[in-house]
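Data card: per-record layout.
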Amino acid sequence: MEVNCEGCAGCCLDWRELLGDDDSVTRDAADEHEHEHRRHDPFAGSDGNDSSRDPLDDDPTFVALTRDKVRAFLEAGMADALTPRFWYARDDAEGVTIDSHTVAAVADRPAFFIGLRKPPKPVAPFERTAPAWLPTCVFLDPTTLQCRIHGDELFPAECGAYPEHNLALAQETECKRVESAFGGDRLLETDHDEPDGLLLGSQAIGAKLFCHPRPVDLEGIVERATAGELTCRDRAETIAVAAASSPGTLAISDHHYEQAKATILEDSGPDSESTADSWVGPAIRDWYERCREAGEAVPSPAVADAVERERGAPETPGWDTLE
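The structure for this 323-residue chain is written out next.
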């Protein structure tokens, strides 16, 4: 497998906003990508067919983390990087009603993923000269368009296995979507090994697909997830359940749940008194504030030096170093 990622990062940000303002993108291409710009969802089952369960959020490239990876982020003091994803149920029989939404559930337990947040950042992917504010993975450096934790033990296996997972499931890759919309060659070689960690259907329960044991505790959270207004406490509730889950079962460890939730609330939020020295939370809050204050103005991606690097974010090697 060989991919050309330089100047792209299409799988690390939501680039749909660019479809309407690039003269090289046709309206037909824009319409196509508005409907198909999503990764394969393991909640669909092992047959690879579309599940028809739409997510409550609008992130087209959501990366699902395993329980062990969730725990690793918590141990690193980076709970601020994490966020849940819920789905609408296919029908009333398979769902639980919360905040007037019928949420997909397993054994009457609302099901969800934990993934990485995408704050707005000024980025210029696909050889564009002018940057735009786009929802961008918390770990993507806007200047180099490289991942700050690539090669680190925190780097998600789902990111490392992409696009192999999509190809193994006979799904379109983000590489091909970018090629179709903006031209160029991104997916250079499609031969690949059998991907590891491809958890589907019941295999994913407790390992990647988490099930909340108390639907009543999600009241308000589901509505805010739909509106894109999750709070630190909302994220803590779901992340703690994920960290306390047991792979292959619906069991939740009360001890691990309470411990994880306390850790998250201590380490996260603007008023946190934690001694954890993570750059992630302050950087996310800074990006949102800068985007609100900027209005239609878009700063240079180099502002990431002040927002992320000066707070302790790892530097990226640059593309010349990798050649």
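Known properties of this structure: The chain is about 30% helix and 15% strand. The two ends are 17 Å apart (CA to CA).

See the next section for split statistics.
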